[in-house]
Amino acid sequence: MRERLLNLILAGVQRAPFLILLVAVAALVISLPAAGKVELKSSQIDMLPKGNPVVRRWIDFTDDFDIHAYLFVIVRGPELDKAKQFALELDRELRAFPKLVSEVEYRLDPKLYENQQLYFLSQSKLKGLEKGLIEGKPNLQTLASSPGFVSLTDVFLKELQKEEPSEPEEIEGFFTFIEEVCIRLAQVARGDEADPIPWTQFFGLGGGGEGHNDPFADGGWKLSTRKNGILIAIHPTDSTDEFDFIIPFYEKCREVAKRLQARYPGIDVGLAGQPALIYSQRDTVHQDLQTTSTFSLVGVSLVFIWGFRGIGLPLLAIASLLSAIIWTFGAISISPGHLNLITTAFVSMLLGLGVDYGIYIVSQFAEKRREGLMLSEAVEGAIRGAGPGVMTGGLTACAGFSTLMLTEFPGFQELGQISGVGLMFCMISMLCLLPVLLQLVGGFATSLGTSSTSRVEVVLEKVARFSIRNSMVVLLVFVCLALVLAGEAFQVEFDYNIQNLEPEDTEAVIYETIMQKEFEVTPDTNMVLAATLEEARAKKRALQGHPSIGDIDSYSDYLPEFPGETRIVLKRMAKEVEDIHFQQPSHLDGDKLLSNLKAIADRLKNLKLPLLITSEATVVLQADRSELAARAAILALGEELNRGGKARVEEYQARAFQDLSEGFADLQAMLGAEPFDASRLPPSIRKRYRGKSGRYVLFVSPRVNVRVESQANQFITETQTVDPEATGVPILLDEVLLLLRRGFKQATIYSLTAVVILVFLDFRSLRLTLLALTPLLISLATTVGMMKVLDVRYNPANFVSLPILTGLGMAYGVYLLHRLLQHPEEGTVGAVRSTGKSILLSCMTSMVALGSLSIAQNRGLSSLGQIILMGLGVCLLTCVVMLPALAEAIGFQRREKVNRLARLKDELLSFRF
Fold first, then answer.
1. DSSP class of 693
2. Phi/psi at 858 (nearest 5 deg)?
3. pLDDT digits (tens, 9 = 90+) for 366-394
C-alpha cells in the first residue's frame, strides 16, 4: 500500500508537476481569506464536556441565575474617605456606558434598613438586649433626667455597690476603664481632639448576632480587613465571557478607573475578577502566539540553513511548510471554526514537527545531487529514500495527536483535530509540493549550497563507533538510568492550582490575590440551591460549623428570620422605655466628678483586697499597677480642670450627651418600626440570590485553600454533605482536573498503541517494531523521571507533551531503521553518519520550534516547552547512541546481510536466460 502511494506521488511529481503546483496555489488562495476569519474563542465552558453531570449542573445554574462575571476594583490608601469618594465618582462616570455596565456596587445604602436593624438580631441577642434595657432602666432614667458625667459616675458607683467583681482581672478592667475615661477628658480639657463616646456599645447594639452576616456593617461599605481599602463590583450587562464583549467592557472600566486615580494621589487602584483574567489571557495568548511563532519560524530557518550550508533548499522546504500551515488555517475555518486557549500552540507544533519531513526529503535530494544524479533522478531518489520514513513518521504523529479526539474534552478534541489535520497537510506538502519545487527550481537551489556538514558527520560517526564497540556498557547505562528515573516518573504530581498557569506579574493575578487576602472575597465558592427561603435557612445552619466552610452568603442575610416573634419583643421593649426622655445636660461640677472618680477607685480597692489574697503574685502586681495608673489619671484630670479646662469638658459633655439623646431616640424609633419588607431590596440583590426558576442560592466560601487538592476535597465533601447537587467553581474545577488526568492517561495509552500499530504495519516485523519501540519507551520513562527530579508538574497545558514525544521519538528511530534496511551495505556506522545528520537537524528544529514555548508568558505553555526540550534531547541520545548499540547487541546488521544474500541468491536462481 505504501509503495503504491509513493509510486503514485512520484508519477504525479514527474508527469504533472504544474498541476500539483496549481492545486497547492489554489488551496493557498482559498485558505488565506478563510484563515483571516479564524478567531480566538475565549469561552472556557465551551472547552468542557457538556454531557458530564457536574458540567451540566454548572450550566443549568448559570442559565437559571444569569450570574455575570463581575469586574472588581480594589481601592486602597491611607485615607479611607478618598477611597469612598473615588467609588462615588466611578459610579457616576460609568453610568454613561449603559450598554456595557449595568450597575456599580460598592455600598449597601444604610437607609435601606432605616430603623429596622433590630429585626436582624438573633433571638438570643434580642432577648439579651431586652434584659439589659429592663435591668438598666433605673440608670437610664437617672441619666435622662440629669445628663452629664457626674450622673454617669453616680450610676457607675451605684452599680459597683450592687454587683461586686468576682475576679482580680475584672477589677483590673474597671481600673483601666477609669484610666481611659480620665485620659480622654484630660485631652479635652487641654484642647486636644477626642473621639466621641461609643454609646452604641452602651446599649449592646452593633451586629447581626450569631450565625448572621451583617449587611449594614461598616456603614454598608465592603471594607478590607485592615479598614484601609474598598472593594467595588462592576456588573456587566452581558453574562458572556467572549472577547467581543469582555474586552470593550474591561477596557472602558479600566480607562475610567485609571483616569480617576490621577485625581486622588496616594491611593492604589487595581482590577481583578474574571473579565480582568480573560483580558490578561487574551493579551498573553496573542503575545505568546506572536513571539513563539516568530521565534520558531526564524529559528527553524536558521537551523535548516546552517545544516545545509545554504538558503536555497531550506527556503523551498520552509515555503512548503508555510503552505501546509495556511491550508490548516483554512481547514480550521471550516471546522471547528475557531481557536481556543489550548489550540493556539498548534503553529509552533507544526513548525517543529512538519519541518522534519522536509529535512529528510531535502537531505536525500542533496545526497543524490552530490552523487551526480540529474534533478528528476535526485527527486525520485529522495521520494523513494525518505518517503517511507516520512510517511510512517507523518502517519504516526497524526495518529498520536488524533488520539486526543478520544478524550472527553472538546478543547483537547479540537487540539487533536487541528494538529492531526495540520500534520497530515505537512506530510502531503513535503511529499508532493516540495519535490515539485525541487524538480522545478532545484538546480538553482542546489547551486546555493547543498553540501553536508562534514564535521557533524565525523562526530556522529565517532559516536556510532563508540556505541557499537561498547554496546553492552551503553545499553546498561541507558537501561539503568531509565529504571532509576522510571521509579520517579510515577511520583510526578498534577498541579491542582490552575492559577499557576497564568503569568505571576499580571495585574489581574496580583489583585485577585489581594482581594482574597485583604477582603476575604474569592471566586472559589460553591453554590447550594434551595427551593424555598426556609430551606435556604435550614441549609445555611447545616453548613455552619464545618471546618472548611467560611462565610455563607445568602438571601436570608438581607431578610429577618423571625419578623413576627421579633415584633412582639420590640413592642415590649418599646413600652419599657416610652417614658424616658433626655433633658439638656447640666453644668459640669468638676469637684463632684473628681470626688466620684476617687470614690470609684476606693471602692474598687476595697473590692480588690480580699480577692488578691489567693491570687498569684503577677496578678496582684498587675492589679496594683492598674490602680496606680487610674489614680494618676484622676489627678491629671484634676490638674487640667484647675488650669481652666472645665469649659472645654463641659462643651464636650454637651456634645456627648446630645449624641446619647439622639442615639436613644433612634433606638426608640427602631423599637417601634415595622418588619422589613423584601420588596425594598435592590433588584440586583434579588436577581443575584433568586433564579428565574424561583430557587434560592447560597454562596459558600471556603475557609481553606482550595488550590490545594486535599483541602479542596474537604471543602467539596462538606458542602455536598448538605447538598449532593451543589455546584461551584471548586466542584467544577475538581471534576475537570479529574477528567483531565484520566484523559491524559488515555491519550498516552492511545497514542502509544497507535504508534506501535503503525510501525508494525510499516515494517511488518515484530522484531523491528520492538527495536524501534525500546528506545522510545526508555526516552519517555527518562523524560518523565527528569520531570520529578526538576520539580516540573503536569498541568492542563503540558499533558500533550507525551503524545508529541511519542510521535517524534518513534519517528527518529523509524528513519534510522529505514536507512539500515535500504542500505545495509553502509552498516550501522554509515547509516548513523548519513541519516544521523538529518535526525540531528530534525531534532534541533523541533527543539527550536516547540522549545520556543518555554519562553511563553503563560506558565502552562512554558512548562510544555520545557518538557519537550528535555524529551527531545533524550530522544536524540537514544536514537544516535543507544539504538546503534541495541542493533549491534542483537546482531541486526549481520542478520540483514544474511537476509540480503539470501534474497540475492533467490533472485539469481530464479533468473532465466
1. T
2. -65, 120
3. 888 888 898 899 999 999 989 988 898 88
The 3 state secondary structure assigned to 31-98 is HHHHHHCCEECCCCHHHCCCCCHHHHHHHHHHHHHCCCCCEEEEEECCCHHHHHHHHHHHHHHHCCCC
Residue 165's pLDDT is what? 62
Q: Tell me how far apart the alpha carbons of residues 486 and 802 are, in angstroms, rounded to a whole number.
A: 14
CA dist 861 and 801 (Å) reads 10
Positive or negative, the Cα torsion across 878, 884, 886, 887?
positive
Q: What percent of the chain has pLDDT over 90?
A: 42
Please work out, in degrees rounded to the nearest 5, the angle formed at the alpha carbon of residue 426 by the alpha carbons of 421 and 427: 100
The distance of Cα 106 from the centroid of its chain, to the nearest Å, equals 25
* Single-letter amino acid, residue 275: P
Task: From residue 435, give the alpha-carbon distance in Å to each of 316, 377, 379, 825.
Answer: 9, 11, 6, 27
Beta bridge partners, 700, equal 526, 552
Query: Do 271 and 31 form a contact (C-beta atoms < 8 A)?
Result: no
pLDDT higher than threshold 60 for residue 16 = yes
Whole-angstrom Cα distance, residue 797 to residue 593? 75
Residues 474-528 have pLDDT tens digits of: 999 999 999 999 888 888 988 888 888 888 788 999 999 999 999 988 889 999 9
Identify the sign of the CA torsion 130, 132, 138, 140: negative
Q: Dihedral of CA 436/442/448/454: which sign? A: positive
> What is the phi/psi pair of residue 103, to 5°?
-165, 145
> What span, in angstroms and rounded, lies between the C-alpha atoms of 301 and 898?
42
- Is omega for the bond preceding 775 within 30 degrees of 0, making it cis? no
- Predicted local distance difference test score (pLDDT) of residue 894: 55
**Residue 617's pLDDT is what?**
66
Please tell me the distance from the alpha carbon of residue 284 to that of residue 278, in angstroms, as a whole number.
10
How far apart (Å, rounded) are the C-alpha atoms in residues 295 and 290?
8
> What is residue 164's predicted lDDT score, i.e. its pLDDT?
63
How far apart CA 262 and CA 33 sit, in angstroms, is 44
What are residue 273's DSSP bridge partners? 71
Q: List all residues 6 or more positions away from 473 whose beta carbon is below 8 Å from its beta carbon.
A: none
Cα–Cα distance, 545 to 291 (Å, whole number): 51
Q: Please report, for residues 535, 551, 732, the alpha-carbon distance to residue 528 in angstroms, rounded to integers and kept in the order given.
A: 11, 13, 13
In our burial notation (b when 16+ CB lie closer than 10 A, e otherwise), range 301-329 reads bebbbebbbbebbbbbbbbbbbbbbbbbb
Query: What 8-state DSSP symbol labels residue 586?
Result: P
Residue 119, pLDDT score: 87
Using an 8 Å Cβ cutoff, are 277 and 508 in contact? yes
Name the residue with cell 519517555.
Answer: 780
Q: At CA 739, angle to CA 345 and CA 522, rounded to 5?
A: 85
Distance between first and last Cα of the chain: 32
Note whether 508 and 279 are within 8 A (CB): yes
Spatial contact of 596 and 157, defined as CB atoms under 8 Å apart: yes
Whole-angstrom Cα distance, residue 785 to residue 488? 5
pLDDT digits (tens, 9 = 90+) for 295-319: 988 998 898 888 888 888 889 999 9
Pick the residue with more confidence: 493 or 248?
248
The arrangement of strands across the sheet holding 696-702 comes to: 549-553, 696-702, 526-530, 727-728
**Cβ(703)–Cβ(548) under 8 Å?**
yes
How much is the pTM? 0.78
